[in-house]
Amino acid sequence: MLFLLCLLPLAWLFYAAATNQLGANPAEALIRRLGDWTLRGLWLTLAITPLRELAGLSALARFRRLLGVYSFVYATLHLLAYGWLDMGLDMADIGRDIAKRPFILMGFTAWALMLPLFATSFNKAIKALGAKRWQTLHKAVYAVAVIALMHFIWMRAGKHNFTEPAVYGALLAVLLGWRVIRRLRTA
Hints:
mainly alpha, 9 helices, globular, transmembrane, metal-binding, flavoprotein, transmembrane helix, MsrQ-like
């Protein structure tokens, strides 16, 4: 069921694109909405552990990996939409754009850090790495979240629109702060 729920935003975006409902600049709308769903997926992934522990719902843990994989899928689609719709898949232009605009560099960095997490999100990879190393590697999701938030903030800074990034920032502060407090209590 969660598998299908994670596909709903993508299905809606395809429908909206096919029926010309993405507004005056459909490429920008598609790129932005895919980025929004990437952030939402990341935050939901990070919310699983606190929800599981606070609500006593240990069964939630089995959804964390699936949400993480979907976050990577949406991040990849976000990157592909930017590369294709905004830059015409011209790798030289993309490289110059990454070097010229720091928010794009941050977004690309977040995606690049997600790549090994995605590549090791399968049972065979966990077995090959060993549980301890796999867990250590997957703690990189915290850096990914911070870098993705910076990407979002810097992207919105050009339009002086910080309301939505502030909400995402506050949520991330709660999700990461909960982990810090939990670690301090157990130390």
